């Protein structure tokens, strides 16, 4: 089947146009003539240009997947067939990459594959957690309920990410602005002062001389400095990704950081309990759940702690013990998990812990923001103030000499 673009005139003589999917051009002309159209012009629709370079690949935002999941759950609950749901979702999808993925999944389901298998062919959009939960929903005949839980879980997860980004974006933005302002002063403003000072014929104060020397160094080696910064950042990223020891070192360091370490731990607990609770309540086996939760942890130290817990359970032991030994999860969390295991309500207990730590993350973000704001102001004011004082010291000295 191919898509053809056509234009013509209706019975009233008005120009009309559109698109039609058909086997050939003649089939399109016959179908349009039956509708009473004349002066027909039909041509194949040109294919969209696809660029296969990694940085040009169409990406699917998480928000689109959340909206799709919520609407899909509603449609399944209303009794619509899966194929029709996928077709409707694909038609209304504005993101071209996601539209293509949904159409591909629809074709695969039409050929007899399960929805979960179709989703697994697109790991860049649907992760293992999503696919396993959908599989559990299909097996248990409760796909609409599982999709509803998935949508709720993803919405909570998105809010959690926004909170963390909110805590990190502000200080990062202030530091970037400070660096730009300082660089502009060093490269463009200080040289004009330096030209003025050279006419004084006197030795410059130590602070002024240091600032002038730094300005000279920056102007002479700006490209070299930028290149070195780029190489260092690129090298550290490669080391983090490819060297297991370096990966473990950095992840461990992040968790132990004075201010942000506390926030990262609370985020880790909230994410772990929310994900595990959602999967267990959806009927995914606990060993599979723990393996998926470990892979989506985003921190090697936490991943190892969860995998140790999985190993413990496979040997017939409890979840709480290994989590307590890891030292990452607070005693309150491990004790509540132990109570949940004992009472047979682990999924409900995990959900309560997740709700509690969502609030804790909120409080931590507010505390960090209120603490960092004055520190950044002092930092920025201190550097700029030092530079201004350094530049005006020779003028003050000249004024004293004149008096």
Draw up the topology in text:
Layout: E1 2-9, E2 15-22, H1 25-34, E3 38-44, H2 62-77, H3 82-92, H4 96-110, H5 115-120, H6 128-140, H7 143-198, H8 206-242, H9 244-256, H10 260-281, H11 286-295, H12 300-314, H13 320-326, H14 331-343, H15 346-402
Antiparallel strand pairs: 1-2, 1-3
Structure description:
This protein has 403 residues and is mostly helical. Among the domains are: 43 residues; 96 residues, Type II secretion system (T2SS), domain F (Receptor-associated Protein, Up-down Bundle); 80 residues, Type II secretion system (T2SS), domain F (Receptor-associated Protein, Up-down Bundle). The chain contains 15 helices and 3 strands. A 3-stranded antiparallel sheet has the order 2-1-3, with helices on one face. β1 and β2 form a beta hairpin.
Q: What is the β-strand count?
A: 3
Indicate the CATH topology of the domain at 60-155: Receptor-associated Protein
Largest sheet: 3 strands, antiparallel
Low-confidence stretches: 48-58
